[in-house]
Specification:
Elements: H1 2-25, H2 42-50, H3 54-65, E1 68-73, E2 76-81, H4 84-92, E3 98-100, H5 104-110, H6 120-134, H7 136-139, H8 143-157, E4 163-165, H9 166-182, H10 188-202, H11 216-243, H12 253-259, H13 271-302, H14 304-319, H15 329-333, H16 336-348, E5 354-359, E6 363-365, E7 368-370, E8 375-379, H17 381-384, H18 425-442, E9 443-447, E10 453-455, E11 459-461, E12 466-471
Parallel strand pairs: 2-8
Antiparallel strand pairs: 1-2, 3-5, 4-12, 5-8, 6-7, 9-12, 10-11
Protein name: Cytochrome P450
Family: Belongs to the cytochrome P450 family.
Membrane topology: Single-pass membrane protein
Length: about 475
């Protein structure tokens, strides 16, 4: 009896060790190399993006290593995954296993309490607060204000010009819309001060986090600090106005977030979370919408039949309005073809090239292990340009989105997907449709620069997409 017990106690650790080794041997790391410490493949990826060969760079990895591979990006060991299943894991994976986590450079510049960094109940709490302002029911009342901003922009920056650089102008427009509608900031000088620091801040978001005076990363950190100081002043002003009851909760996004209270009358969103999420909204709204509008102008100039169909739809809406009458929510609902053009533009030129998550636990994915603590890297173009999902992917064809239920889930991810769909997608839709309406009904244009663009990290066309513009006669 004693011998049996002794033998059993001796064998148990041996059996456990053998079982553990067998289990580990079946959970191998994906193929690939982590490269040089800290730098890894970061410079190669950034170089590929800035020569607009990022998709080819990733495709080469797929050809070499298969659907999953390991590498090192921005100082962290990383697993690259792609395809419909990968997108589903990224956007609707088990929150106990996978969480939002951006690169060290993005986290340092935007702050660690923004929506891209939060998970679980914190993510839901802050997201719900943002969505309460950005949902369609709330945004309906701001269509007239967007209309006013677009008209003012065209009067200032387009009227009387022979040539314009589209991307800088679209960035100017979206930044002014964000400042006016989301932050309640009307003074032009105040906006210009923000814009100068903001543009310097975003330049280093995709950079190797080496803090030396001459690096992009360091310049962006300094600009981020200045932006945060300006925003802190703005938030304090909103607090005072709320206390004095000279502001209403739905007046702008900052006031809305400050007004959110739980059942015990405690603030739902902290000052730090408000600050960091304002910065996130600034970056997301400024870059994505401006890139979408710019590349819509580019693709419309290259596709006369699509341009003609958009023009016809927009002229019918314009003819139903009296002179100077602003667009309404109902007008936007009629712009179905124009929004399909926008969706196809986003498919072909997604403003967000790729994104990151973090594994909170060991994850079995296919035949491989994604270790706890590693970054997960995904790229939207991998499904957007997959010919098995979108036939002839290089062809610009808005008809792909006539019946959106025919698009397989988690394959078109310009706005994310599932529970992690971008809370600002409706805001982007409204400002894009309003801007395109006035541009297409008031001007015709042709490209003056070549058709190339780079990613830095968003798409940037040569010369900012230089256009020769001709005003249309007012009817």
């Amino acid at each position: 009896m004693n011998i049996s017990i002794t033998l059993l106690l001796f064998l148990l650790p041996v059996l456990f060790l053998l079982s553990w080794r067998r289990r580990c041997s079946s959970r191998k790391l994906p193929p690939g190399s982590l490269g040089i410490p800290i730098i890894g493949q970061s410079l190669d990826l950034l170089r590929a993006m800035r020569t607009n060969t990022g998709e080819e760079w990733l495709q080469e990895r797929v050809r070499k290593y298969g659907p999953i591979s390991k590498l090192s990006l921005f100082g962290k060991p990383t697993v690259f995954i792609h395809g419909q299943a990968a997108n589903k894991l990224v956007f609707s994976g088990d929150s106990s296993k996978i969480a939002n986590k951006q690169t060290a450079s993005i986290r340092a510049i935007l702050g660690d309490r923004n929506l891209l960094e939060l998970s679980g109940q914190d993510h839901k709490r802050v997201r719900d607060s943002l969505v309460s302002f950005l949902r369609p029911e709330s945004l309906k009342q701001y269509v007239g204000k967007m209309d006013e901003e677009v008209r003012k922009h065209i009067e200032l920056h387009w009227r009387g010009k022979e040539k314009v650089a589209a991307l800088p102008l679209m960035k100017n427009l979206t930044f002014n819309i964000i400042c006016s509608l989301l932050f309640g900031m009307e003074e032009r000088a105040e906006k210009e001060k923000f814009l100068q620091n903001f543009q310097e801040m975003i330049e280093g978001m995709w950079s190797i986090p080496i803090k030396l005076p001459f690096t992009r990363y360091s310049r962006s950190l300094r600009a981020s600090s200045r932006v945060q100081d300006l925003l802190k002043e703005l938030v304090q002003e909103k607090k005072v106005k709320l206390e004095q009851r000279t502001a209403t909760p739905q007046q702008d996004l900052i006031t809305c977030l400050l007004s959110k209270r739980d059942e015990e009358n405690k603030r739902v969103v902290t000052d730090k979370e408000i600050l960091h999420n304002i910065m996130l909204v600034m970056v997301a709204g400024h870059d994505t919408s401006s890139v979408l509008m710019t590349f819509m102008l580019r693709l419309l100039s290259k596709n006369p039949a699509v341009y003609k169909a958009v023009l016809q739809e927009q002229e019918e809406i314009a003819e139903s309005k009296t002179s100077g009458e602003p667009l309404t929510w109902e007008d936007l609902a009629m712009m179905k073809y124009t929004w399909r053009v926008a969706m196809e533009t986003l498919r072909m030129v997604p403003p967000v090239f790729a994104g990151f998550r973090v594994a909170l636990k060991d994850i079995d994915y296919g035949e491989y292990l994604i270790p706890k603590g590693w970054q997960i890297f995904w790229a939207s173009s991998m499904t957007h340009m997959d010919e098995n999902i979108f036939p002839e992917p290089s062809k610009f064809d808005p008809a792909r989105f006539e019946n959106q239920t025919s698009v397989p889930p988690y394959t078109f991810v310009a706005f994310g997907g599932g529970p992690r769909i971008c809370p600002g997608h409706e805001f982007a839709r409204i400002e894009t449709l309003v801007a395109i309406h006035y541009l297409v009904t008031q001007y015709s244009w042709e490209l003056c620069s070549d058709d190339h663009y780079i990613r830095d990290p968003v798409p940037v066309p040569t010369q900012g997409l230089l256009l020769r513009i001709v005003p249309k006669k007012e009817k």
